[in-house]
Amino acid sequence: MSNERPIDIAVIGGGCAGMAAAFELTRPEHQGRYRVTVYQLGWRLGGKGASGRGPADRIQEHGLHLWMGFYENAFRLIRECYAELQRDPATCRIADWRDAFVPDHFNGLADWSPRGGWSPWTARMPPFEGLPGDPGNEVPRWSIADYLARSLELVRALVMTVWEPASGTAPDAQRVPAGVGTPEAVLESMSSLLKYGQFATLAAVLEALGLMEVALGTLRRYPENLLLRFHDAVAAALRERFAKLIETDDQLRRLWEIIDMMLAVVRGGLRFRLLTDPRGFDAIDDYDCREWLRLNGASEGTINGAFVRALYDLTFAYEDGDVKKPRVAAGQGLRGAFRAFFTYRGAFFWKMQSGMGDVVFAPFYEVLKRRGVRFAFFHRLEDVRLVAPERLAPGERPHVEALEFDVQAEVVGGGEYQPLVDVRGLPCWPVAPDYRQLVEGERLEREGWQFESHWDRRKVGTRTLRVGEDFDVAILAVGGGAIPHVCKQLVERDSRWRAMVERVKTVPTQAFQLWMSANMSELGWTEPPINVSGFVEPFDTWADMSHLASEESWSQPPAAIAYFCNALPDVPEEERQRPAFPHEQHERVRRNCVQFLERDIVHLWPRAHGDSGGFRWDLLQDARESPEAGASPQGEARFSSQYWTANVNPTDRYTLSLPGSLKFRLSPLDNTYDNLTVAGDWTDCGFNQGCVEAAVMSGRLAAHSISGAPRLEEIVGFDHP
After folding, report:
1. I want to staple 296 with a disulfide (CB 3.0 to 4.6 A). Which of 145, 252, 267, 670 is the partner?
2. pLDDT tens-digit profile of 277-309?
3. Strand 506-507 relative to strand 59-61: parallel, antiparallel, unpaired?
4. 269-292 burial, b for 16+ CB within 10 Å, e for fewer?
């Protein structure tokens, strides 16, 4: 490297986006050109993915975290991180990324039968070729035509599964009749079927679906009105055939709901001309997904069914946290569903084998430290200060002149805070800071300083970073909900930032974890370990996390561990300003948990309730309990030993993808301000939905905006239609 001074980068926020940006900017290829400092609230990295070790080294998460098999960018970086870390498997049980992430093939939905009652709808998702993040193995660049053709292929497969065995033979499964392959032949076959209405047999319907698959591959050769009429005729034939069957058979009804949804998606793709619109799926982002499906012929049963409901539940897609206001932009909803179901590699879900902080953020921290990244913990951003317009020289672009922080605590001796703890050879994050490292740590602990709370404004000092002295470029990688609080001047001066704050909404979430003395089979669950969504409020999503018991340090390990999560109904902004608000919400979530266990969990775990009704509170294990401790809490009071959280801090709130809102997101590639870029799942990053993959994509884009690397074509999904 030349004698030129390194460019100082201030990364504000240590979540997935901030870590991805720091990882990219400190690659060896840059030869030390960028000198990175990460400024972090409190004592740990992770953002919404933070976790900590509590009593008995219990893993305590922000919520339920699963990685999906299409998270190409996230897996690519974490795989590279573990390769660089080079942990010794003889001394560390999670030494490789395959130790940290394990394929999870069993998934389920909670389905409400029209005849009354909840029942699980479970399935084993087949493994797909390759592994997420495989180097040198490019992910297929799907087009909308490809997705619609795959949708019809899925419809054909599902229809084949319900062919009545009593008929003696199954319809010919070939895609199209022999000799029908040229556009002219396909067109002639479609016209003939339409003219004579030959959809009476299932074999004819399957042939028609095959013809449409071929037609979608070369749409420019076919009249759209013909395809629409042909599609509608096929859909009508299928509806007629299924109408009676689904009235008495829940399994067929469920399959029909998927078929009906796929038919509506294909119809909408044709009707809205998505295959030729340069905006791709973005063209329908002003519609809600359910609204758009309804416009394109999906039945009310399908729209309100378990499958569609789960698409909303998995992304907390309820405006203001209100289950009566399900809303997600149709384009992003379809993009997410298509990526999830048609582009996953290895497994549909991948389950972490410890806390997310342990398997993701501790490795990133260790690798970045080795690369020379500095971490300034206990720094709370107060404002991003712009240079006054009148002070700009002719031709000089607007820029950030200062970053203003409150310093929450200082480290004894003035060195760097050492955040990790050792749990039987694995570096982990604790649930509370190590007060021994902090100046007057005993007093801070005694007074109960809440370093991660938006409402605890206590500080030991302030710090102002000045451009040209302390930093050259800033990457704002805080949670989207924090923007109005930490970018007051930007929001006041810039109408685009103001519009983003007003239109790109967030929602609080709630979660709880149980450690139990009975295993899932003893609780009445008869399926394999699973992740279930689409259940009843207030907790619509559950995952069996019993595999984590061996990762914790119980004197008597629990037989089962369960995680639950959901959106938390919001309250007006003025109510959120009261100092008592976080405590009130914590108690509110506790009441939700107790009510859920007393009233609803019996539908999933029939033997979790006693003979006299109500939850068996004696199932709950207390990490602090011991035979020598004497009498232990009984009844509902035992719930206090479990873990629950109300994620109401602005930076903890989940970013929604509301209809009509995505165009107001800011891009990491936006260069309005000469030395400022943004990163987070709240930005315009090519996959505009709250998830790990979006955050990592955004962080990589932020790094690209500064250094030109990685190349945009290397950011998988950025150019997705």
Report:
1. 267
2. 999 999 999 999 999 999 999 999 999 999 999
3. unpaired
4. bbbbebbeeeebbbbbbbbbbbeb
What's the CA gap between 145 and 168, in Å, rounded? 35
d(CA 134, CA 78): 11
Rounded Cα distance between 190 and 200, Å, is: 15
Classify residue 396 by burial, with Cβ atoms within 10 Å: 0-12, 13-18, 19+.
Answer: exposed
Arithmetic mean of pLDDT over the chain: 93
Residues 20, 364: Cα–Cα separation, whole Å: 9
- Distance CA(588)–CA(510), nearest Å, equals 10
Could you give the 3-state DSSP secondary structure of residue 291? helix
What residues contact residue 216 under an 8 Å CB cut-off, 6+ apart? 145, 148, 149, 152, 227, 266, 275
- Rounded to whole angstroms, how far apart are CA atoms 533 and 107? 9
The residue extents of the domains of the chain are 7-55+72-80+354-505+658-714, 135-343, 509-647
Superfamily of the domain at 7-55+72-80+354-505+658-714:
FAD/NAD(P)-binding domain (3.50.50.60)
Question: CA-to-CA distance for 693 and 17, rounded, in angstroms?
Answer: 9
Q: How far apart are CA 669 and CA 679, in angstroms?
A: 10
Query: How buried is 555 (Cβ within 10 angstroms: 0-12 exposed, 13-18 middle, 19+ buried)?
Result: exposed
The amino acid that residue 386 corresponds to is L
| Closest by Cα among 318, 313, 306, 228 to 264 | 228
Lowest mean pLDDT among 161-175, 221-235, 393-407: 161-175
Phi then psi for residue 557, to 5 deg, are -60, 145
Give the whole-angstrom CA distance, residue 606 versus residue 612: 13
Q: How far apart are CA 134 and CA 174, in angstroms?
A: 33
| Lateral strand order in the sheet of 541-544 | 118-124, 106-112, 531-533, 541-544, 560-567, 509-516, 643-647
| E strand residue ranges, 622-716 | 643-647, 654-655, 676-678
pTM over 0.85: yes
| pLDDT over threshold 60, residue 50 | yes
